[in-house]
Design a protein that fits this description.
The complex is a heterodimer of chains A (about 120) and B (about 700). With about 120 residues, chain A is α+β, with helices and mostly antiparallel strands. Chain A contains three helices and four strands. By secondary structure, chain B is mainly α. Helix content of chain B is about 70%, strand content about 0%. Chain B has 42 helices and no strands. The longest helix of chain B is centred in the N-terminal third of the chain and has 22 residues. The relative contact order of chain B is 0.04. Classes of the chains: A alpha+beta (about 120), B mainly alpha (about 700). The interface between A and B is medium-sized, with 34 and 32 residues.
């Protein structure tokens, strides 16, 4: 019984995190490793970013505030236009539609390279 | 006759004794012995260092072994060096011993070093102070401050004290440095305030944000220009809006460096209050770097104001100003700059035109109409008679089409007729074109690139990969020949291609250099043999690893590990623990070179354990090795280093993170920055990302 309650609490916790807006991190918070066993999914996109000298970094800094984003892996290109990117995320913490919405808030999605794939 | 069961083992041991002695002697063999000469006094002293702590007490300078030779003993030389520092009467020798103790970074020498602060020779004291900085400890604070305060202390030793205190994180140090930073300098003494500020800046994690900002603000207003410069550098990292008022007047500072750093910091801070001052400064600019910094700052603060202001510069009467304006328009990478750049393309000056051509290539846009407009604007220049302008126009077109104009690079640049242009210029243009084509995997430059790589003319990671992907037996043979002739830039190619004959040749190179285990030949041969993976050479490699010298030991054990000897993993770890702190950063590549999964599997858990070593030099080196193999896992130890209470550990972690070559580390650091709650750690992460570019 206790085990089920704990599981329910954990699920609720994950769901709450996925759905909430990310606030500015508190002074004690920092990046933490995600256990290897946690399920990951990946989406490949072709994006154009708002032009700036550091457009790629600005995009990353905003999107990484979502703790459900595990890795943003850019292609070798330069500049802000038509950049390929693989985004690995934790589906149990961040639902795909929510991720896509965050991406669209930050960039123009030119194309989806793959519908969904497992991370390398 | 009574049975003697012990007789057998004893007889066996007696029989093996000469062999064992031989082995020990082989381990201790000196270069002169290997060459059949008797040992010199210096070699004898060197050989006795690990076993005789007194060996350096009475040594004369002419017989004193060099620091690199002593360091090859690793931390086994600490005791002898301590006695040398305490008991040798020759100050020059004591200096060398202190320098060597500094390189070793062995904390066991802490007390001896603290005692040696009382040395009568100022050069010795300076080196002792530096060594104490290598092993930061709170117990050194009082003696160091006391030394600094002595009226008769030499200024170079006092500078060394400030640099050492920068590494010892302690509130007492912060209090002392804050006081020194504002102390009025004596007339006959150098002004130590900039050095005190640098040291204080290293301790910024121990200070309240408001105190730190207040100290930086007062440093910006100092009468010491060096201190002002240091403070402007700090402003870029702090990014505090409270510093803007103090930074604005510095745009008029007499030092160019201060002016530039002040503008750069204003851009980084991003407070709109600076816009007016930046716009007022713009027409007075006299240096391209300043123009660039103002443009970047303005572009962040007020885009409209920037384009209005740059319009005036782009149409200025002086060509050099128009040229720089075009450059800036390209660097900000906005398509809004295209109308101005089109004007610059029609400029009477070819220099302004060329600058505009390059700038157009940098513009980014998702709007297809604008992209076509930019390409149309470049079209006339692609067939220009001026070869420099043509070359830039072709690369700009290639860039705007996302790498879609390899045909132009090949036909108009790579196939350039050298008779029509100067031979040197044509060769340089052809070279750049070949590299660009090779990076795109174009097969038409195969012969050029193969010859270029084998001759060492264009050996980069991408060109080597290009050749490796196309290597037939003939190419492999040429690569091996080049390597055998001593071109060790080809080591990675020989290792990965594994041409026929590589094993016997690498074996011969190793044997031929046997009397010189510290040579490049030994290192490169071990790398090749380790990668080839042929276990028949394992006994030879193991014998080579059985040396007193640390480097061949590391290379040899790594090669053994790669050849399947998993027991070598412990020996690699033992060698790392013996290694001088100064050498550890160079050991990263030597160990991380192992790309065989079995070797990594054997070593990775031991390195993970080593990350907890109390000696941060060892702990962070282990993490830095793992960062090359599994960056996602290893990055946390190094980011934890940035969070350490110790300024020394923070600086070391920063250095490893800034230098890690994998672009994935950049992505991981961005993630760390986005989630970092501590202002100080976030500042550090941002500074590292800036350094990584």
């Amino acid at each position: 019984m206790f085990r089920y309650a704990l599981a329910l609490l954990l699920v609720a916790g994950c769901g709450g995190q996925a759905g909430s807006q990310v606030a500015h991190p508190d002074p004690t918070s920092h990046d933490e490793p995600v256990p290897a066993g946690v399920k990951r999914a990946q989406v490949g996109l072709l994006l154009s970013l708002p032009p700036a000298a550091d457009c790629e970094e600005q995009f990353d800094l905003e999107l990484y505030r979502e703790r459900g984003v595990d890795m943003i892996d850019w292609d070798d290109g330069r500049g802000c236009v038509e950049r390929g990117v693989d985004i690995t995320y934790l589906p149990e913490r961040l639902a795909r539609p929510k991720l896509m919405q965050r991406v669209k808030d930050l960039a123009t999605v030119i194309d989806r390279q793959q519908p969904e794939k497992a991370p390398q | 006759m009574t049975k003697k069961p012990w007789l057998g083992p004893v007889a066996l041991a007696a029989g093996l004794l000469p062999a064992a002695i031989g082995l020990v002697q082989a381990y201790r063999v000196s270069p002169s012995e290997a060459a059949g000469r008797p040992m010199s006094t210096r070699e004898r002293i060197l050989a006795e260092i690990p076993d005789d702590p007194k060996v350096l007490i009475n040594v004369k300078f002419r017989d004193m072994p060099g620091s690199p030779d002593i360091l090859e003993w690793g931390k086994r030389s600490t005791r002898a060096l301590e006695r040398c520092l305490a008991d040798n009467v020759d100050a020059n020798i004591r200096v060398r011993c202190a320098v060597t103790l500094n390189a070793l970074g062995d904390r066991r020498a802490l007390k001896t070093l603290q005692t040696a602060l009382a040395d009568w020779d100022a050069d010795v004291r300076r080196e002792v102070v530096r060594a104490l900085g290598r092993m930061p400890d709170a117990s050194s604070v009082d003696p160091l401050i006391a030394l600094y305060r002595r009226a008769d202390e030499e200024s170079h030793a006092r500078y060394a004290v400030l640099a050492a205190l920068a590494k010892i994180s302690d509130q007492k140090v912060v209090g002392f440095l804050r006081k020194e930073m504002t102390a009025k300098p004596d007339e006959d003494e150098p002004d130590f305030r900039p050095a005190a500020f640098r040291a204080l800046w290293a301790q910024r994690h121990l200070m309240a944000r408001t105190t730190l900002t207040g100290d930086v603000r007062s440093a910006l207003k100092s009468d010491n220009d060096d201190l002002v410069y240091e403070a402007t550098l700090a402003c870029s990292e702090l990014r505090n809006k409270g510093l803007v008022d103090a930074l604005i007047p510095l745009m008029e500072h007499k030092w160019e460096g201060v002016r530039n750093k002040a503008v750069y910091a204003l851009g980084r801070i991003g407070d709109k209050k600076a816009t007016k001052a930046l716009l007022e400064r713009l027409p007075k600019v006299r240096e391209s770097r300043m123009l660039n910094n103002i443009a970047f700052a303005l572009e962040r603060l007020d885009k409209k104001a920037f384009y209005d202001a740059i319009d005036d510069l782009a149409t200025h009467k002086q060509a050099v100003i128009r040229l720089n304006a075009a450059f800036v328009l390209g660097d900000v990478r906005h398509a809004e700059g295209l109308p101005l750049l089109k004007k610059a393309l029609a400029d009477d000056s070819e220099y302004v035109q060329t600058s505009a051509v390059v700038a157009v290539g940098k513009l980014g846009t998702t709007d297809e109409t604008k992209r076509q407009e930019a390409l149309e604007a470049l079209k006339p220049f692609v067939s220009q008679g001026n070869i420099v302008m043509r070359e830039h126009a072709i690369y700009a077109t290639h860039q705007l089409t996302k790498g879609g104009r390899l045909d132009l690079i090949h036909d108009k640049l790579f196939k350039l007729d050298p008779n029509r242009y100067g031979y040197g210029q044509a060769r340089a243009i052809q070279y750049r074109a070949a590299i660009a084509l090779a990076e795109a995997g174009d097969p038409r430059v195969k012969d050029y690139i193969v010859n270029c790589v084998i001759r060492g003319g264009c050996s980069t990671q991408s060109t080597r990969a290009y050749v490796a992907a196309r290597a037939d037996d003939s190419i492999k043979g040429k690569v091996l020949l080049g390597w055998a002739r001593g071109d060790y830039g080809l080591t990675s190619m020989v290792s990965s291609l594994g041409p026929n004959g590589a094993k016997p040749i690498a074996t011969s190179v190793l044997e031929d250099a046997w009397s010189n285990p510290r040579s490049w030949h030994t290192r490169e041969a071990l790398h090749v043999l380790g990668k080839l993976g042929d276990g028949t050479v394992l006994p030879l490699v193991q014998r080579r690893a059985n040396t007193r010298y640390l480097w061949p030991k590391v290379h040899g054990h790594m090669a053994s590990l790669r050849l399947g000897d998993s027991a070598a993993a412990d020996k690699v770890v033992a060698a790392l623990q013996q290694m001088p702190a100064e050498w550890l950063p160079s050991s990263i590549h030597a160990v991380a070179i192992a790309d065989q999964q079995a070797a990594r599997d054997a070593l990775a858990p031991k390195l993970e354990a080593l990350q907890k070593d109390p000696d941060v030099n060892i702990a962070l080196a282990a993490a830095a090795i793992r960062l090359r193999w599994t960056p996602d896992k290893a990055v946390f130890r190094l980011v934890d280093g940035l969070r350490s209470n110790s300024a020394y550990e923070r600086d070391l972690a920063e250095r490893y993170l800034a230098k890690a070559p994998d672009k994935r580390v950049t992505f991981l650091l961005r993630r760390a920055l986005a989630r970092e709650g501590s202002d100080d750690v976030a500042d550090r992460l941002r500074a590292i990302l800036d350094r990584r570019g």
